[in-house]
Specification:
The structure holds 3 protein chains of 3 kinds. Chain B is α/β, with parallel strands linked by helices. Chain B is built from 17 helices and 14 strands. In chain B, strands 7, 8, 9, 10, 11, 13 and 14 form a 7-stranded mixed sheet that branches. In chain B, a hairpin with a 2-residue loop joins strand 4 and strand 5. The radius of gyration of chain B is 24 Å and the shape is globular. Chain C has a single domain (92-320), classed as MetI-like (MetI-like fold, Orthogonal Bundle), CATH 1.10.3720.10. The two termini of chain C are 27 Å apart. The chains are: A mainly alpha, B alpha/beta, C mainly alpha.
């Protein structure tokens, strides 16, 4: 291996852990508050004088989080899988073809990154109404696939342009068709960035608040953030409940990220070497 | 290859999950349903009222509650597309993007004039629930603004609630000297900044000059050349006398209430609904009351701000207009008024024989009965901007960036936009 | 539409002088990729369909509202030409908001990426805790901004954890009325955004670093290059794609910043943290002046387009030199 664990690495380790601790303070406060009773007099940095799991139980039941987790999972998984496949596919010609239409299309997609969401809010809502999709999770799936397409294409295209082209050329000489080359050669090479695309899209989709509130309102179905915030502002002290719910709701994403980043790292070298 | 396995797995999960998703979508069917939207502060009230209504009529109600900002955004979007809920929360009068005047001018709420409750609307609430002689919203709660005192903490310190302006300032000094805060102020929470103005203005502006709002809309008076200057000067005088905690502009609503709950602050000027929230954070047996905030040295002149709180309108394009009417009938009935207002410590707008008022609201009820109240000022302002500017200038005023006249002329400018 | 220069990040990476032939890269122009490259456009169709239908077309429809007097709910609206833009040009609040938006976007872009890059370098090493740290440092980015904003509002309160911590370590002089002082609040908001998204930048840098073939890095060790020279002349050129992506995303994110400001200060105290996004939101949904809000949104779009394409252009030229 190119780098051994030396005393310098040791210093780096200590520094990085110190930085991580500083970064972690607010998250610590969040977790700390989620385990205490609402009238606990201890400060946010002190350990709670009362320890309770009641907030978690209440958040789960009152927020109907079980049902909301299913909805959020459906929306996230379906939209992100479609996003990954379609945006990687689109990035391929955008990165590899130097013709004018390719550049125009690329910048056409990038415009999507610039637009504030308020512009499309009302016209899109009206369209969803006309399609009869309001109140169903499919309106959200459709929305996120479109919304996140520019971002995903942007990530994929940038990375694909930096990838060596020999493998594709070899495949082309082998006589593989364009789609075959993409699926068997290019897509596996995109593994590190695919992990990133997945996790960054999941965050957006999972956390969005206003769209599900608007699109699912009145249907009895909701996603995790909306049910969580249904007890914000009702009573002041329900923050302990909200934070408990928040911990429940971010845990799945943290796990996905952890698993992904490990496979991404292991996978790359072997992916390159075939 | 492991990578492909991951992709296959993901697609598999998507298929399974989407089947689960489909079966979810078909829920909520069967029987007649009605959709009802409200704001978070009234969520428990609406849920309980919906349950009672369902038990009585068999009509199931889907209640959606969201925070004020989100409520305004989503409901306006839905109204513009004709998909709004059957019954929805409407603010009294004007001065709010979802106020009665705004939605009735746009023809989005049904005319309720032929319903029975209209004859029971108190005189003071007529102007803020009617437009052009027609009734568009059903008043459900009354709300009031006063100083929410922690009586237990006051007794422990041997203090009593001040009833004149001079006593108030003196009390502030005493509290400060004892290391306590007299009035916790949530200066970082925009809507909270207006409450002290609203508590002082009835005594200083609207009591002495009952026609003030009418004169203003006729263009005869402005904020900057009226007794509103006294209101802002007294707001500042309270700050100078040490009534508020240090760094009041950095304190949010939750923290201000917490200070009162824990007895670090003796009081906070709040709406009555906040009492329930304060109690939640306090030790059991702690006693609270909502008292008027004096603005002069003549106690008999003191008035309170009290107004129509929650009110509901029926969507002009309601999917279930019959059910919606039944819900409004229920909410305006004796039973409905009580079921709705009990869980949120509010006061029935139309009265209810079965309602047992929260003892902490005694003075508010007394002021209401003796007619010594004036509506919240924004309900009579012509647009939502005046109120927003009010929030902003109070913060500037307390930070010393602007004086009372300067602050009020900014409000005049927003008022003039009409 | 603004045209971004077509230079691709890969071209820049290609120029890294010491890289021992990391493989020929291409934007395609010079590649004899497929006999049928011209047919590759078919691959764009599904993505483009979703994008046009969900984003582009509704946005164009929405943008049209800026030229009307629509209040947001009435069934009627009238065409008023460029009245809203004239109003905007004469609105001192809008001018202030534009200035603050630029300050925030600039600060966030620089600091967040610098921190993100350092973190990525740190956890891309041999340290034993790297897997755990990658998760911990990224964790803030996963929490919805609305929630982190509420959390920080609590931490920033006058008697909150930040001031308590400063007192505790003997830095009492540094305690602030973080969100209540107009001079400080804007920086406090930047701090929160940087805290939350430095890990996000880190992940993008990290994905790029993992794509650098180990041979490139090994060769630099053989050369005996020091850590700084190794970073500057070998790693940095390889990072061109992620630098471009990160800068672009943080500029756009900084300019459009809404949730954090809205929750923590609502634009206050006294308008001292009002940004274009909060101003547009207030007009569109609270003042009942939807069309004016949309006019602000259009100006914001143009601003974002100019600045993000500007950085793209500058960066690509710099890398070519």
């Amino acid at each position: 291996m190119y780098q051994r664990y030396t005393w310098k690495t040791g210093i780096l380790e200590v520094v990085m852990i110190a930085v991580a601790v500083v970064f972690f303070v607010p998250a610590y406060v969040l977790i700390n508050l989620s385990f205490r009773e609402s009238n606990d007099p201890a400060g946010p940095l002190e350990l709670p004088s009362s320890f309770t799991l009641q907030n978690y139980a209440d958040a789960w039941v009152q927020g109907n989080l079980g049902n909301a987790l299913v909805n959020s999972t459906v929306v996230s998984v379906v939209s992100v899988v479609v996003l990954v496949l379609l945006s990687a596919l689109a990035a391929y010609p955008l990165a590899r073809v130097g013709r004018r239409w390719s550049k125009v299309a690329y910048f056409g997609f990038l415009i999507g990154l610039l637009l504030p969401f308020q512009l499309a809010l009302i016209p899109l809502y009206t369209t969803m109404r006309d399609l009869g999709l309001l109140g169903t999770v499919w309106s959200l799936v459709l929305f996120y696939i479109g919304l996140q397409m520019p971002f995903s294409i942007f990530l994929y295209t940038g990375f694909l342009r930096a990838l060596p082209i020999e493998y594709e050329e070899a495949a082309a000489i082998d006589g593989a068709g364009a789609l075959g080359t993409f699926w068997r050669v290019v897509f596996p090479l995109l593994r590190p960035i695919t992990g990133t695309v997945v996790i960054l899209n999941v965050i957006v989709v999972w956390n969005d608040f206003l769209t599900p509130l608007l699109y699912l309102s009145g249907s009895g179905q909701q996603t995790v953030p909306v049910t969580l915030y249904s007890f914000v502002g009702q009573y002041v002290s329900q923050w302990n409940l909200v934070f408990a719910g928040l911990v429940i709701s971010i845990a799945p994403i943290l796990i996905v990220y952890f698993v992904l980043q490990r496979t991404v790292i292991q996978g790359f070298a072997s992916g390159l070497k075939g | 290859m492991r990578y492909r396995a991951v992709v296959t797995l993901a697609i598999g999960a998507a298929v399974v999950a989407s089947i689960a998703g489909c079966s979810n979508d078909t829920g909520g069917g069967g029987g007649e349903t009605l959709t009802w939207a409200t704001v978070t502060s009234d969520k428990t009230a609406a849920k309980e009222a919906a349950a009672a209504f369902e038990a009585e009529t068999g009509i199931s109600v889907e209640v959606t509650a969201s925070g004020v900002d989100e409520y305004q955004t989503t409901t306006r979007t839905q109204l513009s597309s004709g998909t709004a809920p059957d019954v929805f929360f409407v603010w009294a009068g004007d001065g709010n993007p979802m106020a009665m005047q705004v939605v009735s001018d746009a023809g989005l709420v049904a005319d309720l004039s032929d319903m029975d409750f209209t004859s029971r609307i108190p005189e003071g609430f007529k102007s803020v629930s009617q437009n052009g002689g027609k009734t568009y919203t059903a008043p459900i709660s009354s709300a009031g603004i006063g100083s929410a005192f922690n009586l237990t903490a006051m007794e422990e310190n041997g203090w009593s609630i001040p009833t004149t302006w001079s006593d108030t300032l003196a009390f502030c000094g005493e509290a400060k000297a004892a290391g306590k805060t007299a009035f916790a102020l949530a200066g970082a929470t925009p809507w909270n900044t207006q409450l002290i103005s609203y508590a002082l203005a009835p005594t200083l502006v609207y009591g002495p000059d009952p026609d003030f709002a009418a004169q203003m809309s006729a263009g005869d008076v402005t904020f900057a050349d009226s007794a509103w200057v006294d209101v802002f000067d007294k707001y500042l005088a309270m700050q100078d006398a040490g009534c508020f905690q240090d760094d009041a502009l950095g304190t949010v609503y939750e923290d201000a209430l917490d200070m009162v709950a824990k007895g670090e602050a003796m009081a906070s000027v709040q709406v009555n609904a906040s009492l329930a929230a304060i109690r939640q954070g306090a030790a059991e047996d702690t006693e609270f009351t909502l008292a008027p905030l004096p603005a002069t040295d003549d106690e008999s002149q003191t008035r309170m701000a009290a107004a129509m709180g929650a009110a509901y309108g029926i969507n002009a394009k309601a999917k279930n207009p019959e059910g919606a009417k039944k819900l409004i009938e229920f909410l305006t009935s004796d039973e409905g008024q009580s079921v709705y207002n009990t869980p949120i410590a509010a006061i029935p707008a139309l009265g209810s024989s079965t309602f047992e008022p929260d003892p902490a609201l005694d003075s508010l009820l007394e002021y209401l009965e003796s007619g010594k109240t004036d509506p919240f000022m924004d309900q009579l302002w012509p647009n939502a901007k005046v109120q927003q500017v009010h929030f902003e200038v109070v913060q500037q005023l307390l930070a010393g960036d602007v004086d009372a006249k300067g602050a009020l002329s900014q409000m005049d400018a927003a008022y003039a936009e009409g | 539409m603004t045209t971004l220069p077509a230079a691709a990040p890969a071209e820049l990476a290609q120029r890294s002088p010491t890289a021992p032939e990391p493989g020929r890269r291409s934007t395609g122009r010079r590649s004899g990729l497929h006999r049928g490259t011209s047919k590759l456009w078919i691959f764009l169709i599904p993505a483009a369909a979703f994008y046009v239908f969900i984003v582009l077309w509704p946005s164009i429809q929405g943008a049209g509202l800026a030229f009307t007097d629509w209040d947001g709910i009435s069934p009627t609206r009238a065409f008023v030409g460029i009245d809203n833009f004239i109003q905007l040009a004469n609105d001192p609040k809008a001018a202030g908001a534009i200035g603050r938006t630029l300050v925030i976007a600039f600060t966030i872009t620089i600091v967040q990426n610098a921190v993100g890059l350092l973190l990525a370098l740190g956890v891309n090493s041999r340290i034993k805790s790297r897997n755990l740290l990658r998760v911990l440092l990224f964790a803030p980015a996963i929490i919805t901004p609305v929630a982190t904003a509420y959390l920080w509002q609590n931490l920033f309160s006058p008697n909150g954890a930040i001031n308590a911590l400063l007192e505790g370590v003997g830095l009492g002089a540094l305690t602030q009325n973080w969100l209540g002082d107009g001079e400080v609040a804007i920086w406090a908001i930047c701090l929160v955004v940087i805290w939350q998204f430095a890990g996000y930048s880190m992940v993008i840098f990290l994905a790029n670093m993992q794509g650098i073939s180990t041979e490139v890095i090994e060769a630099s060790y053989v050369d005996g290059a020091g850590p700084f020279r190794r970073f500057w002349s070998i790693i940095r050129p390889e990072l061109a794609p992620s630098i471009t992506i990160n800068l672009m995303l943080s500029i756009i994110g900084g300019l459009k910043l809404f949730d954090q400001v809205w929750v923590m200060t609502g634009g206050g105290p006294g308008g001292s943290t009002e940004t274009m996004s909060t101003l547009l939101y207030k007009n569109a949904f609270q003042f009942g002046d939807f069309s004016y809000g949309i006019a602000i949104a259009l100006v914001l779009t143009v601003l974002v387009a100019i600045l993000s394409s500007g950085q793209y252009f500058v960066l690509s030229r710099q890398n070519k030199d």
